[in-house]
Amino acid sequence: MDERDVKRLKEFGDLIQREFSNELKASVTAEEGAYKTQPVYTIALEQPAEELKYVVLSEDISQGQRVESFRITAEFASGSQYPLYQGTTIGHKKICQLQDPFALQNPLINDSDGQISRLKVQITAARDEVMMKEIKIYR
Q: What separation in angstroms does the CA of 80 have from each of 23, 41, 87, 89, 106?
């Protein structure tokens, strides 16, 4: 194997280790009463966080890939809610790189307190009943 390839693979491995080594403890619950094709998952963080980098979603694809679209919303300790990510299919694994909800807005409208206490993952369209395997949060 070429030395340049080895160097790049090592850099890639180091990047993955650095980005995904800090998983946050959280409890995930599916909200009752939601349609089976549009479930809402609430992720309660063990401790509020100021910054979240990634949410990793996984479907149980042994039942087939079903999710067609979804959104992730942050709930701040103050009660404010802001969208962090909107995406399409999930499949085996979808790594969602979260965005600062105020990055492209006037900072004066930011009425959050900076501490994210919960996240909501809402499936907005699916082909059949959604079978989520796991949801993980990384800082």
A: 24, 18, 22, 27, 16
Q: How many CB atoms lie within 10 A of CB 6?
A: 10
Tokens 């089976």 — which residue? 36
pLDDT tens figures, 4-19: 999 999 999 999 999 8
Residue-range domains of the chain with CATH: 23-138 (2.60.120.260)
Query: Model's pTM, two decimal places?
Result: 0.84
Q: Which residues of 33-61 are buried (b: 16+ CB within 10 A; e: fewer)?
A: eeeebebbbbbebeeebeebbbbbbebee
